[in-house]
Amino acid sequence: MFLVTGATGGIGRRVVRLLRENNARVRAFVRLSSRYDELEHRGAELFIGELREPRDIEKACRQVKYIISTHGSRGDALALDYRANIELIDQAKANGVEHFVFISVLGAERGYEDAPVFKAKREVERYLQTSGVNYTILRPAGLASNLLPLAETFRQTGLYLLIGDRTNRTSIVSTDDLAKMAVDSVTLLAACNQVLSVGGSEILTREDIPHIFGRIFNREPVIINPPLFLVDGLRGALGLINPQAEKALGTFRTLLANEFFCTKEEIAKLEAIFNFPLEPLESFLRRHLSV
Ligand SMILES: NC(=O)c1ccc[n+]([C@@H]2O[C@H](COP(=O)([O-])OP(=O)(O)OC[C@H]3O[C@@H](n4cnc5c(N)ncnc54)[C@H](OP(=O)(O)O)[C@@H]3O)[C@@H](O)[C@H]2O)c1
């Protein structure tokens, strides 16, 4: 039995889909407020709970052989990126789980002081690596599925908002490829106890993205490019009324201010371990936008 957290999210939904296509038994951890009918139709067992509740995690982990942790936090890094994963690892140990796949983030090891999600991911990585449980840590760059709503807005308006440096490099990864790696990690010996940087097949600049949209929809992009200090101004003002939100914006700022790309060697290593060619961003978008 596989336990998948974040099963209604961009990665988790695809992980459940792939596992069910292989007829694997899957327990999908979902919230009552989530949209989970697709998972049920695919034959996943639903566990309705809340990842902030250790008791729910303890129950969800019973009789589980593999755990794939894909959940996100939307601002509460301490409770969800950190504590919920630590609890999942403790339960993995207690239940003799054979393999734990953790979706971290590219750059987790860089020690960004201002980015709670990055710090939480790094601490969870360390905890998992010393837990005694077999693991695979996948550190993805930006997910291609996150660009789909932006592409739809572009289709309607031709507009693209790009905050900060246009020339920063990124290796957006196909969310379908990432899900496949997460599933295959459990069985591939070469992926066992590995920490892998995960990107797409090409290194792009952030400015390439609206141009890809432009090619797909056959329209010239209008790029709105405010400087990064506007985010700093907004954060400062927000901090006066809501210090918690100001902290959460630290992760957002870190993502905008830095480069997140994989080297050619890292991509070659991924393709060698998982034995499939990584999909370019334009191909992912064309498949999902039906153009
Ligand atoms: N997005 C990126 O570009 C990116 C890049 C690198 C790494 N990552 C990592 O990849 C993972 C998935 O990202 P994503 O963008 O696919 O996430 P997402 O689509 O936002 O999904 C987040 C998932 O977590 C679940 N969740 C959130 N809070 C929960 C709670 N309190 N209890 C139970 N479930 C909860 C959500 O359930 P609901 O449906 O109920 O909201 C959803 O299924 C995250 O670990 C993220 O840090 C993302």
Determine the fraction of residues in helical runs and give it as a percent range.
Answer: 40-55%
Provide the residue-averaged pLDDT.
95
CATH architecture of the domain at 2-141 and 174-199 and 262-278: 3-Layer(aba) Sandwich
Number of H/I helices = 12
Tell me which oligomeric state these chains represent.
single chain
Strand order of the largest sheet: 3-2-1-4-5-6-9
Which range does the strand content fall in?
5-15%
CATH fold naming of the domain at 2-141 and 174-199 and 262-278: Rossmann fold
List low-pLDDT spans.
none
**Content-based structural category:** alpha/beta
Order of helices and strands: EHEHEHEHEHEHEEHEEHEHHHH
CATH hierarchy, class of the domain at 2-141 and 174-199 and 262-278: Alpha Beta
CATH homologous superfamily of the domain at 2-141 and 174-199 and 262-278? NAD(P)-binding Rossmann-like Domain
Structure description:
The structure is a single chain. The protein is an alpha/beta fold and 291 residues long. It has a domain at 2-141 and 174-199 and 262-278: NAD(P)-binding Rossmann-like Domain (Rossmann fold, 3-Layer(aba) Sandwich). It is built from twelve helices and eleven strands. The chain has helices at 10-21, 37-41, 54-60, 77-94, 116-129, 148-157, 175-184, 208-217, 229-241, 243-257, 264-274, 281-289, and strands at 2-5, 26-30, 45-48, 66-69, 99-103, 135-140, 159-161, 169-170, 194-198, 204-205, 222-224. A seven-stranded parallel β-sheet has the order 3-2-1-4-5-6-9, with helices on both faces. Strand 1, helix 1 (10-21) and strand 2 (26-30) form a beta-alpha-beta unit. The longest helix has 18 residues, at 77-94. The site of NADP nicotinamide-adenine-dinucleotide phosphate has 23 residues, from helix 1. NADP nicotinamide-adenine-dinucleotide phosphate (NAP) binds next to helix 1.
